Amino acid sequence: MASYVVVEPPDTRPDRAEKAVVVRDGFSLFALIIPLLWFLWHRMWLEAAAFFVAALLLAGLGTLPGFTMLAPLLSLFLYIFIGLEAQALRIASLRRRGWEVWGVVEAGSRDEAEARYVAEAEEMPARQPASGTPEVPVAPRAHPGAPRSASPAFGLIDYPRKN
Predict the structure, then answer these.
(1) Among 42, 56, 73, 132, whose Cα sits 20 to 30 Å from the Cα of 8?
(2) Nearest residue to 143 (alpha-carbon basis) of 116, 115, 108, 113
(3) pLDDT at position 155, please?
(4) Could you tell me what percent of the chain has a pLDDT over 90?
(5) Integer CA distances (angstroms), 6 to 17, 64, 138, 141, in order
(6) How many CB atoms lie within 10 A of CB 87?
(7) Contact by Cβ (8 Å): 92, 7
(8) What are the residues whose beta carbons fall under 8 Å from the beta carbon of 37, sequence distance 6 or more?
(9) Quick one: three-class SS letters along the chain?
(10) Dmax over Cα atoms in the chain, in whole Å?
(11) Can you tell me the distance from the alpha carbon of 102 to that of 8, in angstroms, rounded to the nearest whole number?
(12) How far apart are CA 2 and CA 46, in angstroms?
């Protein structure tokens, strides 16, 4: 089973479950092979610009004498890092735009993860629109009586987990 992170849009409309994004938490082969296009496809403009600048700097570094072997090695590390952390960067990009992480769903496929999310989202009460007092976010639980998992987080970002 894989872990899928569900990220909901910032509005409180009743159809927000339909617009939620389900992101597989794990390695991304397309981000490893074509990171710039992957970032642009997911509308991650800052990450695309940062990758482009880093790639230009590494290409320039490769032209300097003494760095001809170091630049391709650093490029390889950059591509591997992007492949490993692309999904976490995508979630972070959505959070910067006001999206909220609903939780993590474990499922065998993306469709199954969406079905599990929709089933649980329909059981939860609708969110109230923002008022003057800030709310403390509470991560929803799949089983209210179940204890939270104390397992370590994968990647650079920790998510509220669903069991």
Answers:
(1) 132
(2) 116
(3) 59
(4) 55
(5) 10, 45, 15, 13
(6) 22
(7) no
(8) 30
(9) CEEEEEEECCCCCCCHHHHCEEEEECCCHHHHHCHHHHHHHCCCHHHHHHHHHHHHHHHHHHHCCCCCCHHHHHHHHHHHHHHHHHHHHHHHHHHHCCCEEEEEEEECCHHHHHHHHHHHHHHCCCCCCCCCCCCCCCCCCCCCCCCCCCCCCCCCCCCCECC
(10) 63
(11) 6
(12) 28
Measured between alpha carbons, how far is 25 from 3 in angstroms, rounded to an integer? 5
State both tokens at 152.
């370590």
Give 95-139 pLDDT, tens digit per residue: 999 999 999 999 999 999 989 998 888 777 655 555 544 454 555
| Distance between CA atoms of residues 95 and 106, nearest Å | 21
Which pair of structure tokens corresponds to residue 66?
A: 């003494």
| Residue 101 structure tokens | 């992480």
d(CA 110, CA 38): 19
Q: What is the pTM of this model?
A: 0.70
